[in-house]
Amino acid sequence: MNFRSFGRTGMKVSPLCLGCMMFGGKTTPDDSYAIIDRALDAGINFLDTANVYSRGRSEEVTGEALKRNGKRDKIVLATKVHGRMDDDHPNMAGNSRRHILQQCDASLRRLQTDYIDIYQIHRPQSDMAIDETLRALDDLVRAGKIRYIGTSTYAAWQVAESIWVAKELGLNRFVSEQPPYHILDRRIERELIPMAQTYGIGLIPWSPLAGGLLTGKYSRNTTPPADSRFANVETNPHLQRRMVEAIFDVIEGLTPLADAKGITLSQFALAWTMHQPGITSPIIGPRTMEQLEDNLGAFDVAITDEDRKAVDALVPPGRMVSPFYEADFGPNQFGLLG
Asked: For the chain, what is the radius of gyration of the CA atoms?
């Protein structure tokens, strides 16, 4: 395993990160334990979850798996805070000191650990001053409850602002960012990746398979599999905005590239993301052992200059095929669209 430097921290992480969102939800605890053990045996040393995944259940299952296999100290464990954890109380969400401190203690209990390696702010909050968030996180670092702090789905200017504020106030700064990034959405190449390379920010992209669209299970003239994320696309406007005709133009262009290497489309897409400049460790989110085994195959895939040129011809650098995340984060989250 060729481990990679995690930004400016000196830590080393595997080129793929195991995302634990499915664990304790669609994936049963026993299957989750088996998937985690298999991933660690394959060389993955980086796990990512969040308190909001199944309202804490993912953290519980992940923590139990690490307790059973005794490998907590050998892995880099990341979790996130921001999402709503109680529907009845207004302060049970967001990036306030109150919520961060409360939820960090809750995550530590669920994960059955004394410390979290990377504690990430799951989303930016426009009505919250960044120094309020940074001071709370800095206190947690000084208390030994967390080692490093990161962000998820922040724009380049928001990360840069946070670095300036941390410097001005003498606080621990963010060391990582977790953006959406895959062949169908390359917007972070415009500003976020250059910013990360400049300031030593580790990038751990989520959804490198575009929510499953780059797995090879979807084609232009066939009905999505019944157990897939896009099974009810005909009645779901949110999914319809993503599964547009242009997506299939790209898929049909990528398939011969994967076939020529004797690999699956998902392995090609993962390998492409994994080997893009500035990327530290894309997050895979397998629901089944079969999906994990397929994902692990990306470790052995070489991406050539010819492959990159072919992908660029299908989706130019910095561009996006479909408005994947407009409804969630706004059209200017990563720069101008088009």
From this structure: 19
